[in-house]
Amino acid sequence: MRRRVLENYGNCCLGSINLDKHVSVDGFDWDSLGYTVRTAVRFLDDVIEVNQFPMQKLREVNLATRRIGLGVMGWADALIRMGVPYDSKRALELTEELGKFIYDTAWDESARLASERGPFPEYETSALKTRGMPPVRNSSVITIAPTGTISRLSDCSSGIEPHFANAWWSNVLWKGIDGAGEAGERLLDAPKSVWEALRERLADEEQVRAVLEQLADDPDGAERIFTENGIDPAHFRTSMLISSEAHVRMQAAWQKYVTNSVSKTINLPNSATIKDVEDAYYLAWKTDCKAVTVYRDGSKSMQVLETGKDTADTENIGKLFL
C-alpha cells in the first residue's frame, strides 16, 4: 500500500480511539469498535467543515483534500486486559486483525460520506481513483499520533506504545532547577490496566499496593517481583524490557494499515551500542516503516520519563517527570 506524505499546508485533523474501552471478556467487541470508528470518521470530517483557518491557503488545501487522521491509544492496556504480552506473536496477530478492521471500516465510512456529501474535490485526479478506490470523502483516514496528552486525560496508555513503567512515584512538589520549591508528598501511581490486572490476581488491595510500591522502587527487578507474587511477568513487560526488534515489528504491523504515518518510540536501554541503534533503523527500513524514532535511555541529562531510585537526589525517588 502506498502511504502518503502530508502536503504543504495540509492539516492535522486527529482523533484517537481508546482500544481498551472495546475489550470484552471474549476479546474485542467488534460491533462496538465498528460503531466508534464510523462515528469518529464523521466527527473528524465535520471538524474540517467547521474549522477556523488562520490562513486562506490552509482553508483551500484542507477543503480540497479533507485529510483526517483517525488513530488509536490504549493498546498496551488492551493487551494487558486480554493477557497478551506486548512482544508476542499473538500481539502481532491481533494488530493485523485490528488494524485491517479499523482501516477497512474507516474507508467504508468515508465512502458512505462521499455518497451523502460528495468526495473530496481532488478525488478525480488522485492516486486513490487511479488505484480503483471508489469515491471517498477524505484523501487519508488513518494515522497513529503520540496521544501524550489525550491518553493521560483518558487514563490510558499512549498510542501503540507499551507502558513505560508498571508503577512510579509522583512527587507533588520537589526542588526545581533554580532550587525553588520543596519536597512534598509522594503519590504511588500506575497505569489503570496494571492496577486492575493486579487486583484480579492478588488477594487484597494491601498486597496490590505493596507490589506496586516494589515496582516503583525497583523497576529493574520487575520480573522477580511479579514471579514472587505468582504473576506471569511476560504480560507486564515495559518499554525498556522489550527488545528493539519487537518494538519495530509492532510498528511495522500497524504501518500496513495506516494511510499517513505512525508515531512510535523504539526505546533502547542506556547500555545500547551504536550497532543496536543501526540495527533498529535497518529493521524499520526493511519492514517498510514510513519513519522511526530511536531513543537510548539516559542519552540526555534530563528526559521526560524516568523510573527507579535516583541515588543522586533522594527527594526524587522513583520519579516520572511529565
What is the number of helices? 11
Strand order of the largest sheet: 1-4
**How far apart, in Å, are the first and last alpha carbons?**
37 Å
Q: Would you list the SSEs in sequence order as H and E?
A: EEEHHEHHHHEEHHHHEHE
Quick recap:
The protein has helices spanning 30-50, 56-65, 75-82, 89-117, 127-130, 148-153, 192-201, 205-217, 222-228, 244-255, 274-286; strands spanning 14-18, 23-24, 27-28, 69-73, 168-171, 186-189, 265-268, 293-296. The chain has 322 residues and is mainly α. It has a domain at 14-153.
Structure description:
The protein has helices at residues 30-50, 56-65, 75-82, 89-117, 127-130, 148-153, 192-201, 205-217, 222-228, 244-255, 274-286; strands at 14-18, 23-24, 27-28, 69-73, 168-171, 186-189, 265-268, 293-296. The chain has 322 residues and is mainly alpha-helical. It has a domain at 14-153. It has a two-stranded parallel sheet. It has a two-stranded antiparallel ribbon with strand order 2-3. The longest helix has 29 residues, at 89-117. Mean pLDDT is 88; it is low at 311-322.
